[in-house]
Design goal:
By secondary structure, this protein is an alpha/beta fold. 21% of the residues lie in helices and 35% in strands. Helix 1 crosses helix 2.
């Protein structure tokens, strides 16, 4: 049976700032992100399975990515742990601030996302690639074969 790649696309809004960066992105700013998640595997051949012919149910992939990534990042502010801490008690504007142990660049986000998605996939399905579009003309990609 042939390997088949399936892709699900997710959209979310997120702000970030790059701690210590020498350009405009050092300031808090936001993006409309588009995340493409591609998994690879063999379609299920068990005729008694309700998932017959599927690599995996798109709904299962959607739930995994939404729980592991989108629900945390959508409409949040992502900052490096090295950044100045914002006090949510000072303003309700800071209730959705997430601190990460890395510089929250598009590239580093993909590395983090890959680990979270890979750990939640069924054993017989592998993460093939991720593409994170940050602006209409800028994106980063992660491929399993490169890692």
């Amino acid at each position: 049976m042939s390997n088949i790649r399936i892709t699900k696309i997710f959209n979310f809004e997120m702000a970030h700032a790059l701690h210590g960066y020498d350009g405009k992105c050092a300031q808090i700013h936001g993006h409309s992100y588009e995340l493409s998640v591609t998994a690879i595997g063999k379609p299920i051949t068990d005729t008694s399975s309700p998932k017959l012919g599927m690599v995996m149910d798109f709904g299962v992939l959607k739930k995994l990515v939404n729980e592991a990534i989108v629900s945390t990042l959508d409409h949040a502010l992502l900052l490096s742990e090295q950044s100045t801490k914002l006090d949510p008690e000072t303003s309700s504007l800071f209730e959705r601030v997430e601190y990460v142990p890395y510089q929250p660049t598009c590239e580093n986000l993909l590395i983090d996302m890959a680990e979270k998605i890979r750990s939640g996939l069924p054993q017989e399905v592998k993460l093939y690639s991720l593409k994170l579009v940050e602006t209409p003309s800028s994106y980063a990609e992660w491929f399993a074969e490169d890692n």
